[in-house]
Amino acid sequence: MEVWDDLRRGARAVVDEGRRLGEVARLKAQLALLEGRRQDRLADLGRAAMELQAQGTLQHEGLTAASSAVAAVDTELAALQAELAALTAEAPPATGRSCRGCGEPAAGGDRFCRQCGAPLQGDA
Question: What is the pTM of this model?
Answer without folding.
Answer: 0.48
